[in-house]
Specification:
Rossmann fold; pyruvate-formate lyase- activating enzyme; OB fold (Dihydrolipoamide Acetyltransferase, E2P); six-stranded parallel beta sheet; five-stranded mixed barrel; 20 strands; globular
Length: 475
């Protein structure tokens, strides 16, 4: 019986994939090791959204091979789907499995020396000569066209033994958008949804394990259900008795139907919605999020740019005024909600005027945090061939300007809560006599005393320390 360790890189969806891989391997009888240095099989579940993500994966391969030279390193995920041959040539790699076959990873890995890959037509194991040098041995590669696959790998990210909190449940994968900078559709495939019944069963399982807060995640979460046909929609919705859901049985279900079903058919204490595109924040979704005490007051709405010209170059499906309308509606319905966005600086052709439009746009909207990214060219995307690539030093300066801007906005947002109470969930970290928690509206909170993890409580805020609120439990 072998041991394994899974190391995840990137987004919540990747973490959910990693949890599903762990479940596959344990179901096959493998034992989870405490670290990569102790494992016989190390699975690297990679990201490729930026060049630095690729670098992180390569660095991890070198580190693991150096510290645990006998480990069989299996590389999967988005980087493995995009550049499998590049990875297969790296020293220490034993096998490369793309996203196209990630759902069969345990079948491939469980055999002695990965012998089970022999049945896969896409597997290759080759050597090639470079000049007069010794042949380069490439690890076997198992990968096919991702668009030919409709599987959705999903499992809750939770581990009760380690007292983890806030598990992620991936209910959607893939993306039908074709943003000019993004490689994700080409490594994750078309948008596809986890059936409602399966979502509810996973939610019930998480509740049975004692979790208080659940995070729904996906690559393009707001598109959940759009891939179901009319006939299959009725079949999938018929198992749910909610009147609100059944009323939509003649049409394809949408994300708000899934939320209603979870709220009405499970006892989850708090449901948090991860990133949802602006065009999917319908009035119906905003009203539900605002009216339910069991939906966290938190909206993450990707922006990318506040310049209309740059948004068009990015092939984004909204204009700045559309985006602003959605944000203002969210803020009006939930004035104390955390509102965040992804913003990209340094996109090809972004002028000083374009950036100033973005800066001013962010300045006037009620953002409480931003994830600011510096543009990274991805091979195979349209933007990689665009002229007027922005110098790195300029892009980094623009990144700094936006981070400083949103830091001021976050501070002003937090100051309004001093002397007030907020609901929060305790996390696992305890330091300097305090326990870390996360508020309903997505604020880091330090509470006095050592408290057990995964406890829902109410806290009174009395100060701010750095970027975190500080308070004490009142109930």
């Amino acid at each position: 019986m072998g041991s394994f360790y899974v190391e995840n890189f990137g987004c919540r969806a990747t973490q959910a994939d990693g949890a599903a891989i762990e479940r596959q391997l344990t179901d096959r009888g493998l034992l989870r090791a405490g670290s990569s240095g102790e494992a016989e099989v190390v699975v690297l579940n990679t990201c490729t959204v930026t060049s630095s993500a690729d670098q992180d994966a390569r660095a991890a391969i070198r580190r693991i091979h150096r510290t645990n030279p006998n480990a069989r390193i299996l590389v999967t995920g988005c980087y493995a789907q995009r550049a499998p041959e590049e990875i297969s040539a790296l020293e220490g790699v034993s096998l490369v499995v793309g996203n196209s076959h990630k759902h069969r990873l345990a079948e491939i890995a469980a055999g002695n020396g990965f012998v089970s890959i022999g049945s896969l037509a896409s597997a290759s194991n080759s050597s090639e000569s470079v000049g007069n040098l010794e042949p380069i041995r490439r690890a076997p590669v198992v990968v096919e066209d991702i668009f030919a696959h409709a599987e959705l790998l999903a499992a809750p990210v939770f581990d009760a033994d380690n007292e983890k909190t806030r598990p992620n449940l991936k209910v959607q994968d893939g993306c039908n958008n074709r943003c000019s900078f993004c490689i994700i559709p080409f490594v994750r495939g078309r948008s596809r949804s986890l059936p409602m019944g399966e979502v509810l069963r996973n939610v019930d399982q998480l509740i049975a394990n004692g979790y208080q807060e659940l995070v729904l995640s996906g690559i393009n979460l707001g598109r959940w259900g759009r891939d179901f046909g009319r006939e299959s929609s009725s079949d999938r919705l018929a198992e749910i008795s909610s009147d609100a859901v059944l009323q939509t049985a003649e049409t394809r279900p949408c994300f708000v139907d899934l939320l209603r079903a979870i709220l009405e058919r499970t006892s989850v204490r708090l449901l948090r919605i991860s990133s949802v595109e602006p065009m999917d924040w319908s009035d119906e979704l905003i009203a539900l999020a605002a009216s339910s005490s069991r939906i966290a007051k938190h909206a993450h709405v990707p922006l990318q740019s506040g310049s209309d010209r740059i948004l068009r170059q990015m092939h984004r499906r909204y204009r700045p005024w559309h985006y602003e309308d959605r944000i203002q509606r969210i803020h009006a319905a939930m004035p104390y909600a955390a509102i965040g966005a992804d913003v990209m600086v340094g996109f090809p052709g972004e002028s000083e005027e374009d950036f100033e439009e973005t800066r001013a746009f962010i300045e006037r909207l009620p953002f409480t945090y931003l994830h600011v990214f510096t543009y990274s060219s991805r091979p195979g995307t349209p933007s990689a061939q665009m002229p007027a690539q922005v110098p790195v030093h300029k892009a980094r300066e623009r990144n700094r300007v936006l981070r400083e801007l949103v830091a001021r906005k976050k501070r002003a947002f937090q100051e309004q809560f001093i002397g007030k109470t907020l609901s929060a969930l305790t996390l696992t970290q305890v330091a300097h006599g305090c326990t870390e928690a996360l508020t309903d509206n997505y604020q880091k909170l330090w509470l006095q005393g050592s408290l057990p993890a995964n406890r829902m409580l109410t806290a009174r805020i009395h100060s701010i320390d750095g970027e975190a609120l500080v308070g004490e439990v009142v109930e």
